[in-house]
UniProtKB/TrEMBL annotation:
GO terms for molecular function: 4 iron, 4 sulfur cluster binding; metal ion binding. It holds the Pfam family Complex1_51K. It comes from the Archaea. This is NADH dehydrogenase subunit F (Ubiquinone). PANTHER family: NADH-QUINONE OXIDOREDUCTASE SUBUNIT F. Residues 411-456 form the NADH-ubiquinone oxidoreductase 51kDa subunit iron-sulphur binding domain. InterPro entries: Nuo51_FMN-bd, Nuo51_FMN-bd_sf, Nuop51_4Fe4S-bd, Nuop51_4Fe4S-bd_sf. Belongs to the complex I 51 kDa subunit family. Keywords: 4Fe-4S, Iron, Iron-sulfur, Metal-binding, Ubiquinone.
Length: 507
């Protein structure tokens, strides 16, 4: 039985791409290692495509055969043939010819892995995530100067510079007195966006490298990765990655777990949790974290997605279009009424419709919620996946596209999200505390025969403009966008009729 930790030490290798908690992945990997004699078998992280997990990639020289979710018996046959010098391709899902030294997963011509691009996601599924030897670190030689010039925007609701130029934050931190600190906010209690988790599982070295590059730019000697306390498996995985890279990285982050609460993922709430506050709630701003952050220090707070974009910009400056309004790529999780969610990467010149191609649906798609649990409802995905396009369409930018089939009721769907916001907000500001309750009540009134569209819209306007927290500001978005798209359905409910035929409970 051959066990390897590096995927790049040999030109012939079997990669088993899986996540840490997959029993089927463990069985497949065990079968491959049992059959292997001289052929190295390497566990790699997830690709983001759950339908093909575990994914076995049999590589010899510049040729790789892909087998999605194979049986242990099939895997043993593949390894036996490879031991004899043959790569079986007859039953492969795809076969790709590529540069033998590629550090990015070779992309098949068809199938979910072919959707969009694999730039930031490129190492995921291809490299050994816990072996520093599989990674070319850029932070050891360069800071994030190149990324600063690229005009990258922050990504994800946990980023203090979400959809804003990250260099504005960096320059503020550099100009502020005090010892700066860099925080990677990976705490998200929502299971909808999986881009950060895919990166931390499949390419943690990219995130660590990006953190160190930013720390070098702002002259910070301290860094923290803030993660959900319930993700014990990912915590152990990251500790191994940090330990493996500790002798290489110029700045080694500390790993800290925080509450498994939706509100705890908001950037300033994350600071409160890191400081051990009894009550986790967002801070009043100004001052921003860049001026008064963790323990009063000037603080950079980005998500893993942002740090990975920074790392890619430093490693391959030519891959970033600095003239684009939203340079780089956007990582999007496609989920909802689909059997197998997928996380894909889309360029700024692409379209969200491409994300639809990464998954299968049993029925027809009635609508989508774009941007997370408090994203916007739309019938149309024909738009660029950029912050500017999504905001112009009234949608969210948190890297999620939920696809809903015709059995979904728009009123019930957004009513549950309004109720979620009323329970999950911190209660610190009146618009967040009282506004979310009023919003949920106005939606319940629809089932009693009262639909006050103008009142809902005015409440939403006030909440967006005056809420201190993201939950209060974004809670109206699913509701108002759903009314824009499905107002007749709302009015039908006042007459006791659900056009979808599935709404059986009053909210």
């Amino acid at each position: 039985m051959t066990q390897e930790t590096t995927a790049f030490a040999h030109t012939t290798v079997v990669r088993v791409s899986t996540d840490g908690g997959s029993q089927s992945g463990d069985r497949v990997r065990s079968a491959a290692r049992t059959a292997a004699d001289s052929v190295p078998v390497v566990r790699t992280g997830p690709t983001g495509i759950t339908a093909a997990t575990p994914l076995v990639m049999v590589t010899s020289g510049g040729r790789t055969a892909f087998y999605g979710d194979p049986s242990p018996g099939t895997v043993r046959d593949l390894v036996d043939e490879l031991e004899a010098g043959t790569v079986l391709t007859a039953d492969a899902d795809a076969v790709v010819e590529h540069d033998p030294e590629t550090a990015s997963l070779p992309v098949p011509e068809r199938g979910p892995l072919s959707v969009g691009r694999r730039s930031v996601l490129g190492p995921c599924g291809w490299v050994a995530p816990l072996d520093a030897a599989d990674w070319s670190f850029v932070s050891t030689e360069r800071t994030a100067d190149v990324a600063a010039e690229a005009g990258l925007l922050g990504r994800g609701r946990g980023d203090a510079a979400a959809d804003e130029p990250i260099t504005d934050v960096w320059e503020t931190v550099r100009a502020t007195d005090g010892d700066p600190v860099v925080v990677c906010n990976a705490n998200d209690a929502s299971t909808l966006p999986t881009g950060d988790e895919t990166l931390l599982s499949g390419a943690p070295m990219a995130v660590l490298d990006g953190i160190a590059a930013v720390a070098g730019y702002v002259d910070a000697e301290d860094a923290v990765i803030y993660i959900n306390e319930s993700q014990t498996g990912l915590q152990a995985h990251l500790r191994e990655a940090i330990d493996a890279a500790a002798d290489t990285l110029p700045v080694v982050p500390q790993l800290v777990a925080g509450p498994d609460e939706f509100r705890a993922g908001e950037p300033t709430a994350a600071l409160e949790a890191l400081e051990g506050a009894d009550r986790v709630e967002p801070r009043l701003q100004p001052p921003s974290p860049a001026k008064h952050g963790l323990y009063g220090r000037p603080t950079v707070i980005h998500t893993p997605r942002t740090f990975a974009q920074v790392q890619r910009a430093v490693a391959e400056p030519e891959s970033i279009d600095a003239d684009a309004a939203d340079p780089g790529t956007r990582i999007v999780t496609v989920t909802g009424d689909v059997p197998d969610p997928a996380t894909v990467e889309l360029g700024s010149s692409g379209s969200l419709t491409a994300a639809r191609e990464a998954v299968e649906m049993d029925g027809s798609c009635k609508m989508a919620c774009v941007g997370g649990v408090l994203g916007g409802i739309t019938r149309n995905l024909d738009m660029a996946p950029t912050a500017q396009s999504l905001r112009a369409a009234g949608l969210g930018t948190d890297g999620v596209v939920e696809l809903f089939d015709t059995d979904r009721c728009a009123v019930e769907t957004v009513g549950k999200r309004a109720r979620f916001a009323s329970m999950e907000n911190s209660g610190r500001c009146v618009p967040g505390r009282e506004g979310t309750k009023q919003l949920a009540e106005l939606l319940r009134d629809i089932y009693q025969g009262s639909f006050e569209s103008d009142k809902i819209r005015e409440l939403g306007r006030v909440m967006r403009q005056s809420s201190n927290c993201q939950i209060g500001a974004h809670a109206p978005r699913p509701v108002t966008t759903a009314i824009d798209e499905f107002e007749p359905e709302f009015r039908a409910h006042t007459d006791g009729h659900c056009p979808s035929g599935t709404c059986t409970e009053k909210l």
